[in-house]
C-alpha cells in the first residue's frame, strides 16, 4: 500500500516523518516526531510537537515542522533559539493550556516581546489587553471627591445621618452656635459636611450609583 499523506485525525504520517524533521540521531522507537527539545538561551525545554503547533502561524510551529527554518541544533539535537529563557516558560505554558500565568515579579513587557518574536497572536492580544487594563486602573486612582455641606438643627442631626444615601460619607460636623430661640430652649445649629467618591467611567462621564438620594 502507498503511504497515506493525509494528516486528519492526528494520525502520524507513516514513513514521512523524515521529510518533516531531520533528526541528527535515531530517537527510541515510538517517540519519533512527538517530543521536541528546545534550547532557549542555554535552558532546555522539553515539549511536544502538538503543543508547539497549537498556534499554526508561530515561529515554533514552523520550527518543529522543519519546513522553512534551518535551525541550528545543539549536541543533544535540541533546536537552538537565541532568546531569554526567563520568558519562554509562560509562552510554552500558554501553548499548553491557553492561559497566561505569570509570577508576580515577571514583567508583562518581557513576555510580550517574546510572544511577538515567536508570533503567537492570541497571546499578544491577551498581554496587550492586560497592560491596557493596568494603565486604565492606574488612571482611575485617586477618585474625585464631591463635598456637600448641609445645615441642620441638633434634633434633626441623628435622623439626617441615619438617612444618608449610599456612597455618601460623613466627614465633619461644625457647631455654628444657636441662632434660633424657641421659647426657652436653644436649638444648636450644625453644619454637616459629607463627601462622596466619584469614579470616572471610560466614557468620561462621572458615574454615580443610579438610585436617588433618600434624603
UniProtKB/TrEMBL annotation:
GO terms for cellular component: Cul3-RING ubiquitin ligase complex; cytoplasm. Coiled coil: none annotated. One of its GO terms (biological process) is positive regulation of cilium assembly. One of its GO terms (molecular function) is cullin family protein binding. Residues 34-135 form the BTB domain. It holds the Pfam family BTB_2. InterPro entries: BTB/POZ_dom, SKP1/BTB/POZ_sf, T1-type_BTB. This is KCD17 protein.
Amino acid at each position: 500500500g502507498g503511504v497515506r499523506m493525509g494528516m486528519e485525525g492526528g494520525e502520524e504520517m507513516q514513513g514521512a516523518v523524515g521529510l518533516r524533521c531531520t533528526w541528527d540521531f535515531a530517537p527510541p522507537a515510538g517517540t519519533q516526531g512527538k517530543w521536541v527539545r528546545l534550547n532557549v538561551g542555554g535552558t532546555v525545554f522539553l515539549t511536544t510537537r502538538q503543543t508547539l503547533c497549537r498556534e499554526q502561524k508561530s515561529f515554533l510551529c514552523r520550527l518543529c515542522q522543519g519546513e522553512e527554518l534551518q535551525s541550528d541544533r545543539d549536541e543533544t539535537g535540541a533546536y537552538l533559539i537565541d532568546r531569554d529563557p526567563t520568558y519562554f516558560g509562560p509562552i510554552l505554558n500558554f501553548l499548553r493550556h491557553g492561559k497566561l500565568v505569570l509570577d508576580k515579579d515577571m514583567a508583562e513587557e518581557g513576555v510580550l516581546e517574546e510572544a511577538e518574536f515567536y508570533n503567537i497572536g492570541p497571546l499578544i492580544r491577551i498581554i496587550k489587553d492586560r497592560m491596557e487594563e493596568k494603565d486604565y486602573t492606574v488612571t482611575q486612582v485617586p477618585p474625585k471627591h464631591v463635598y456637600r455641606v448641609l445645615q441642620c438643627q441638633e434634633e434633626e442631626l441623628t435622623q439626617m445621618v441615619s438617612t444618608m444615601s449610599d456612597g455618601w460619607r460623613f466627614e465633619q460636623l461644625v457647631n455654628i452656635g444657636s441662632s434660633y430661640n424657641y421659647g426657652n430652649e436653644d436649638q444648636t445649629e450644625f453644619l454637616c459636611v459629607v463627601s462622596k467618591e466619584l469614579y470616572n467611567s471610560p466614557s468620561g462621564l462621572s458615574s454615580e450609583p443610579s438610585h436617588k438620594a433618600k434624603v
